[in-house]
Amino acid sequence: MRRGLPLLLALLLTGLLWVPGCRRQDPPTEDEDLIVVGVSQVGAESDWRVACSESMKAAFSEENGYRLLFEDAQQKQENQILAIRKFIQLGVDYIVLLPIVEEGWESVLLEAEEAGIPVIVADRAVDASPELYETRVGSDFLAEGEMATAWLEEKFAGRSQVSVIHIQGTPGSTAQVGRTAALEAALDRNWNWTLLAQMDGDFTQAKSYEVMTNFLAENHSPPIDLVYCENDNEAFGTIQALEEYGYVCGAGGVTVVCFDATRNGLRWCMDGRISLVVECDPLLGPLTAQVIEKLEAGEALKTEYSTAQRCFTPQDLSEDFIAQRPY
Ligand code: GZL
Questions:
Q1: What is the CA(297)–ligand 1 centre distance, in A?
Q2: Where are the domains of the chain?
Q3: Which residue's CA is the nearest one to ligand 1's atom 6?
Q4: Which percentage of the chain shows pLDDT scores above 70?
Q5: What global pTM score does this model have?
Q6: 11 CA from centroid of ligand 1 (Å)
Q7: Do the domains 5-136+283-296 and 141-280+313-324 sit in the same CATH topology, yes or no?
Q8: What does the pLDDT look like over 66-105, one tens digit per residue?
Q9: Which CATH architecture has domain 5-136+283-296?
Q10: Helix-strand-coil percent breakdown of the chain, rounded to 5?
Q11: Which of 123, 205, 287 has most ligand 1 atoms within 8 Å of CB, for mutation?
């Protein structure tokens, strides 16, 4: 009998359970061998995040032997903490946390530990004692940033002046911390690179459009050589704002680089408006499920399971290639 399933079954069948932000579960099958997994997801702020959620839902399906409780936190850490506490109350077998930011998890992770529920961190990292979670499944964000800056340093070699605008992701998220660290190191290495502005685009198209539009209006459309966006959706919003102010993005104009490599991002790159996209794999469901299978089998885990990444430029892309991409 899986821990927690009887209570979950009782609450669901009597209609007493309602987990806000979580689609009402159909009454579970009688199969008490289902592994009950509570997933706390950041939100739906980007194409990457939507693909990540779909990957988690596909991996933790009933056909695969799981009962999934999925909660979307709408970009609020307090909603993630609430979700984790509900999962503890329900006695789920595992908790998968995709943390919006690195700080603020120690207390609720301790509650999960005290309840004997293993926690797996996916995507971004948490700044908490490693004893409080099993492992992290996700990308190396600093390495992603270094791939981008290596390409940029080669592209701008010999250029007397490079004016840079930096559109950051959600402040304090590991993706923002790593990708920012790489750019800031490159700015330190290259005396001819000048940072005109560093603004929070929060990984969304709308916020990035807003902050770039405000910057251009307030600074009378200055010369810009490079815009470093910390995800695809920020690049979409940034380019929209730049083009509205008459800038050309791509070859011969503003170099825009970004991260994720979703289909939309790759299409904007194929069209030449984005000059470089660094891949960040959102399909974390299968890898996370493999970690749970290892835990079920009593196998030792690595402290981290990193996903691979690669870079794309317009020359690398075709519609056929993009169409067969899984996200
Ligand atoms: C990266 C992930 C980031 C993506 C954004 O692993 O945390 O969050 O780069 C998403 O698109 O919003």
A1: 31
A2: 5-136+283-296, 141-280+313-324
A3: 123
A4: 91
A5: 0.91
A6: 34
A7: yes
A8: 999 999 999 999 999 999 999 999 999 999 999 999 999 9
A9: 3-Layer(aba) Sandwich (3.40)
A10: 40, 20, 40
A11: 123
